[in-house]
Amino acid sequence: MNETEYIVCPRCKQEVFKEAIVCPFCKFGILAYVNGDIDKNGDAVKKLNKKK
Ligand SMILES: [Zn+2]
What distance in angstroms lies between residue 21's CA and the mean position of ligand 1's atoms? Predict the structure, then answer.
């Protein structure tokens, strides 16, 4: 089953393919956001509780 996952870009509110590296609409760092490297404002997240 190839279920395509989408995430709503926190910046432009468009549905973006979850594996996209950057939002094609606003260039928000989707991959970094999904990975928890940046928050919805695009600010770097301190990795205090980095998961495996
Ligand atoms: Zn966007």
Answer: 11
Q: Give the number of domains in the chain.
A: 1
Residue 30 lies in a domain: yes
* pTM across the whole model: 0.75
Centre of ligand 1 from the C-alpha of residue 49, in Å: 26
* Burial 24-49, CB ≥16 within 10 A → b, else e: eeeebbbebbbeeebeeeeeeeeeee
Full residue range of the structural domain in which residue 21 is found: 1-42
Average pLDDT, the chain: 89
Calculate how far, in angstroms, residue 52's C-alpha sits from the geometric centre of ligand 1.
27
